[in-house]
Amino acid sequence: LVGAPESNKRTRLLVDGTRARTPPLSAKTARVVVMASSASSSDPSALVELFKSISIDEKLAKSSVQNAKFAANLATVIAAAGCAETGLDDRKRGNLLYTVAGKHPSNALEHRDRVIGDVMRGDLKTSQQLDGVFEYLKVVGEEPLDDARYREAGGVGVVVTEADVEAAFDRVVSEGGQRQKLLEERYRAVATLLKGFRDFGVMKWADGKTLKATFDRKVEELLGPKTEADLAKPAKKKKKPKAKPAEDKAARGEREEEERRRAADPYAFFSKPEENNVVHTTVNFSDGRVMRISNTKRELDAYLGRTGGKYLTRFPPEPNGYLHLGHAKAMFIDFGLAAKHDGSCYLRYDDTNPTAEKTEYISHIQEIVEWMGWKPFRVTYSSDYFERLYELAVRLIESGHAYVCHQTGDEISEYREQKRNSPWRDRPAEESLRLFQRMRLGLVDEGTATLRMRMDMQNENFNMYDLIAYRIKFARHPHAGDEWCIYPSYDFTHCIVDSLEDISHSLCTLEFEPRRASYYWLLEVLGLYKPVVWEYSRLNMEHNVMSKRKLNRLVTEGHVNGWDDPRLLTLAGLRRRGYTATAINSFCRDSGITKNDQQFPYHKLEHHARSNLDEIAPRRLGVLRPLKVAIENVAPDFLEVVKAKVFPGRSDETYELGIGKFVYIEKSDFRQEDQKGYYGLALGKTVMLRYAFAVKCVGFETCKETGEVVLVHCERVEVKKPPKGVIHWVGSESLPEQYRPVKAEARLYDYLFNAEDVAEVGDDWLADMNQNSLEIVEGALLGPTFRDAQPGQVFQLERAGYFCVDKDTDGNRLVLNRTVELKERSDKKKI
Fold first, then answer.
1. Rounded to two decimals, what is the model's pTM?
2. Is the pLDDT of residue 12 over 50?
3. How far is CA 136 from the centre of its chain?
4. Catalytic hit among 329, 471, 548, 690
5. Is 318 part of the annotated catalytic residue set?
6. How do residues 704-758 score in pLDDT, each as one tens digit?
């Protein structure tokens, strides 16, 4: 914990309440930091003059004060260098101090004075040296420096002579055919050689002027003076008409390759476990204190010793509802990151609220995780750690970081709005310990006491407003039973269990980003290891909801037919609809791992469903709204068995269909009058019955009352050239039993809500529900192979869409859910 300038000391709070002292800031440094924090926002002219005093140009000085944090850092560096009053008439050294202010690792600020001193003494002369030192300090953090390794990392004391440059040049030229290349290409090859030479061995520590002069001399000794040919500018090539498009194509190819690389590894940007000693967050307290939170090198080394440097993640759902599409994205990130690096991912039930959790949800979650293709390293519960959490809560009270509070929920909210301290905030630790023990024993009434963390009620971040750590609930826990009547809060539990399980990467959605301060504050004051926290954007979909609260209302109030209603974006609902885990994971990968809020259109999800179902769904014939057709020129007992393709164009596998005197076609495939561009059946028109033969319409009959066509008369015809129109069909009930059609109910789905963004509707969101989101089609007729169809099987009904057999199917009826249509509609509306 870094003290405010007026306290003029830097300390780190330990869990026992003691303070580990580190070297104090000088009084001059403290004054400059105060000036930086105030002048940068009100009167920056003083800071501009200060920055210009170390030979930084005016434009850069003015831009620097725009960033208050950087301005404070630079002012501190200038004061620590002893230049706040005297200035610095050395542009090169001033730029190095500027670099220190911007690039010095925040987890190693204890060593910044050493770096500044080495710059001022001339031991660190170049930005390359600073970069080397910074890389070393990132690893060391606050731990004591190994002077030899520090000096080696920054090339401190390394003197590169002219002879050293000559020897290095000779070695470089003698390797990899460089001499021959130089002799052939002469001075045209020099620039590329010099670029690589600067990074060769200790050359990066060499004085730039000495290196360049010696390099140029050695080149001239090898090649001789430049000739007229060397000095001549390369002849300009005549531009071909297509040269520019070819250039654009190459650039486009590079971009596409970069996109492919990103798609191949969406986890590439995550840091490695061994890099987890950077500053995770900075907590600015209202009294001026600053807490920069990171793992020390010792803590990181101990962690790596326990885990072997494995990537360890966790998928931590609350068992208070069914998982939805957003959870699929979380699984893709949590399990996927671990799998990418041969690590492990926990399935951890975040079960801290017994009144909202059910065994039903616990069983569902594990089953869905496995269905999605993920295998947990271990299944754990936050409640497994209740005893350890209680012990840490006691330690928190003993160290002065928690207290028992008797404010009601409304009073807590009111005091937080007013940024006022609880009346019980300063009660003695011994008193809070006694009360907390009574709370555990069930001797305090529910709602009359909580354990709160003593954080900072006047902080700019409301997540530091003395959050609740424990509350009383006389409720049976679905996993822990009746053992407890006090339960830890999410804010207290989540970060601690992450640490206890040695999680390397704690990944969550962006709404948790403001909780970083409280997450790391608690781990810091308890002295526990700190995982990397990284937030990503939520997965939002048009025309639907994924809020558990809203989903719960839809289900419990009967607006939908259970948690697995195919109109919902619950994973159970999507599975029942016919979406596969492969399609869902593909969509999650395509949606990306970013911090940019996005709302995805439904057709993007449908695209991945189509792509996957196209590969795996066997083709079948069926008609949703059957229209009877009589083939007049065949015998009443006519039967022809035809072979239909399971995967047309991809496989020779077939199944049998029977066609007789009567067949059924789709109503939409017949019109009383033909039209241009229409390829279905009409009076006098010929079409091909899929996999069978051609028929020509010779007449039709209509219902006298409605005028609706009820029977079409056709004749079988021979054609030299197959007609453009090919329609699907099923046989009739008059066929032998093995060829008779199967009656079915088809359920067709539309958007659940009319609005694209349901959140914008406000409190009246239920009134925005689409009353036509479910259409039930009775009397559909399917091919005979559907007699053996089982719930969960997927099919493509040719020309009709992809369908899944619903769980409502039994011996008396067959029910199909349409997963998605064969093609994306032009209006992108129907699902």
1. 0.79
2. no
3. 30
4. 548
5. yes
6. 999 999 999 999 999 999 999 999 999 999 999 999 999 999 999 999 999 999 9
Q: Angle at CA 476, nearest 5°, toward 475 and 482?
A: 115
How many Å apart are CA 731 and CA 784, to the nearest integer? 9
26 DSSP assignment:
P
**Any catalytic annotation for residue 184?**
no
Which residue is associated with the tokens 């800031």?
25
The rounded distance, in Å, linking the Cα atoms of 569 and 408 is 37
d(CA 329, CA 584): 9
Beta bridge partners of 622: 782
Q: Which of 179, 538, 625, 628 is catalytic?
A: 538
Beta bridge partners of 314: 346
| Pairwise CA distance, residues 11 & 55, whole Å | 33
Cβ neighbour number for residue 560 with a 10 Å cutoff: 21
Tell me how crowded residue 635 is: count the other CB atoms within 10 A of its CB. 9
Using the Cα atoms of residue 411, residue 414, residue 416 and residue 420 in order, give the sign of their dihedral: negative
What are the Cα distances from residue 390, in Å, to 432, 478, 488, 524, 706?
14, 19, 8, 17, 75
DSSP state at residue 477: B
Amino acid (1-letter code) at residue 782:
L
Instruction: In whole angstroms, give the CA distance from residue 297 to residue 293.
Output: 13
Binned at pLDDT 50, 70 and 90, residue 226 comes out as confident
User: How far apart, in whole angstroms, are the C-alpha atoms of residue 685 and residue 754?
Assistant: 41
Q: Which residues contact 101 (CB under 8 A, 6 or more apart)?
A: 70, 73, 74, 76, 77
Q: Angle formed by the axes of helices 516-526 and 386-398, to 10°?
A: 80
Who contacts 44 (Cβ-Cβ below 8 Å, separation ≥6)?
A: 62, 65, 71
| N-terminal to C-terminal alpha carbon distance within the chain | 55
The C-alpha atoms of residue 339 and residue 352 are separated, in whole angstroms, by: 28
DSSP tag of 718: -
Model confidence pLDDT, tens digit, residues 23-69: 444 554 555 555 555 544 456 788 888 999 999 888 998 998 888 88
- CA torsion, points 261, 266, 268, 272, in degrees to nearest 10? -160
* Distance from the Cα of residue 464 to its chain's centroid: 26
Catalytic hit among 162, 166, 318, 715: 318
Summarised one tens digit per residue, pLDDT across range 582-641 is 999 999 999 999 888 888 999 999 999 999 999 999 999 999 999 999 999 999 999 999
Catalytic: 538? Answer: yes
Helices 127-140 and 147-154 meet at what angle, rounded to 10?
140
Pairing status of strand 742-749 against strand 814-820: parallel
CA distances from 186 to 221, 315, 396, 485, 641 (A): 12, 60, 72, 83, 80
